[in-house]
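Entry:
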Amino acid sequence: MKTIATSLIVSFALIGAAQAAGPVGSSIDTLPFQGVYGQADNSTSRAQVQAELQKARNEGLVANSDVDNAPFTAQADSGVSRDEVAAQAAPQSGTAISDLDNVPFQG
């Protein structure tokens, strides 16, 4: 039992050391992303980009909205009272199940 425990401890120690070492000779992987902050791209201005976006929107080329975005319309009143609906939904027989064609899934 001592041998198994010792071999597990040594295995985990070697795995941890290998994981902590990382790729061999790769010091660039430990540097954080340097990015392009502070390097201004002077080819187009913000106003030019906004003008191009507005032109594309006017031409219908930008579709970043929901196509079938219809406002909610309430269902028309049926003229049936709450008590009448409850009476229709109540079981007609002495069973507790109101759906008389309740057939289990047969697929």
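The radius of gyration is 35 Å.
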